[in-house]
Design brief:
The protein has about 300 residues and is mainly alpha-helical. It folds into three domains: about 1-50; about 55-85 and about 170-300, Chitosanase, subunit A, domain 1 (Up-down Bundle); about 90-160, Chitosanase, subunit A, domain 2 (Chitosanase, Chain A, domain 2, 2-Layer Sandwich). Helices cover about 55% and strands about 5% of the residues. It contains 13 helices and five strands. The chain has helices at about 1-25, 30-40, 50-55, 65-80, 110-125, 135-140, 150-160, 165-190, 195-205, 215-225, 235-250, 260-270, 295-300; strands spanning about 90, 100, 105, 280-285, 285-290. Strands 1-2-3 form a three-stranded antiparallel sheet, covered by helices on one side. β4 and β5 (about 285-290) form a beta hairpin. α10 (about 215-225) crosses α11 (about 235-250). The longest helix is centred in the middle third of the chain and has 25 residues, at about 165-190. The radius of gyration is 19 Å and the shape is globular. The two termini are about 35 Å apart.
Length: about 300
């Protein structure tokens, strides 16, 4: 009976992930299915040798590099190095995207917060305090509305963050919609872990689309000016071109007018921190941060 229940849970989870990825990538079910297939393959030890991320060597999707990148992004999203404490974070930061919540700042306006809730409900269908908010979250897409949400929803989100299923749901959407696509593209472009981090951070902030204000558009603009390493270009010059292209996009929104996260990334390029070796020092929105091996181990415990 337990085996059947676990099997059913995995089917529901797969369906929720597929629905969320289709929502993010549009109605192209083939593209969504490919991401779902990639996730299944990567979790199968017998197929890990076929995973292009693993075949490329070190990448930011696992181990110490993943922990390092999570701390870097959390310094920008939550003014902290401890990413493990951010699953319950939620507030409206006034950027026009409604509520921002969770480990990388999922939002109600851009639908990825809804994606998290749907996967959470698939993992925990019973006694789920967020399940009843799905209709309101669906209606909130594309706006900053709090209609049908409010303080009760905020409280329910914070309470849900104590569940392992909620943590898994957030990690799933983080990986499927942001981490894995950005690493895959960075590996294709011949980038180091630093370049992978720069791609991932852009994907988190701007989304994975192809328009001029999304990650794909930024990458296209950078490639007009510099070759990627896989095209025979210099990585430092290409990454600087990417940051220049991203600067123009950041400045289109008041909420992103502080370029601290790009300045920190530029500093790492200047320092030659291509493998994100510790210690790392940077400034984010006026706060100084230093990440050492000791701090990273303490966070990851």
């Amino acid at each position: 009976m337990r085996k059947e229940k676990n099997k059913l849970s995995m089917v529901l989870l797969a369906a929720a992930i597929l629905a969320a990825v289709i929502l993010r990538f549009g109605t192209d079910e083939l593209l969504a299915s490919r991401y779902l297939h990639d996730r299944t393959s990567a979790s199968d030890p017998a197929r890990q040798g076929d995973d292009p991320d693993r075949a490329s060597g070190e990448n930011i999707s696992e181990g110490r590099l993943r922990q390092t990148v999570m701390s870097l992004v959390t310094s920008a999203e939550n003014s902290s190095l401890d990413y493990t404490r951010q699953y319950g974070y939620i507030e409206d930061i006034g950027d026009g995207r409604g509520y921002t919540g969770g480990i990388i700042g999922f939002t109600t306006g851009t639908a990825d917060l809804l994606d998290v809730v749907e996967v959470y409900v698939a993992l925990k269908p019973d006694n789920n305090g967020l399940k009843k908010y799905i209709p309101a979250l669906q209606s909130a897409i594309g706006s900053d509305t709090h209609k049908g949400l409010g303080q009760a929803f905020v409280n329910a989100w914070k309470a849900a963050a104590q569940d392992r299923e909620m943590i898994e749901a957030q990690d799933t959407i983080l990986d499927e919609m942001y981490m894995k696509p950005s690493v895959e593209m960075a590996v294709k472009d011949g980038l180091s872990p630093l370049g992978q981090y720069i791609y991932y951070d852009a994907m988190v902030v701007h989304g994975p689309g192809e328009d001029g204000l999304s990650f794909g558009g930024i990458r296209k603009e950078a490639m007009k000016n510099e070759k990627t390493p896989s095209q025979g270009g210099d990585e430092a010059e290409y990454l600087r071109a990417f940051l220049t292209a991203r600067t123009s996009v950041m400045l289109t929104e008041e909420a992103h007018s502080d370029l601290s996260r790009l300045q920190a990334q530029s500093k790492f390029i200047d320092e030659g921190k291509y493998n994100l070796e510790l210690p790392l020092k940077w400034n984010m929105y006026g706060d100084d941060f230093e990440l050492t091996e000791a701090k990273l181990k303490a966070i990851a415990k």
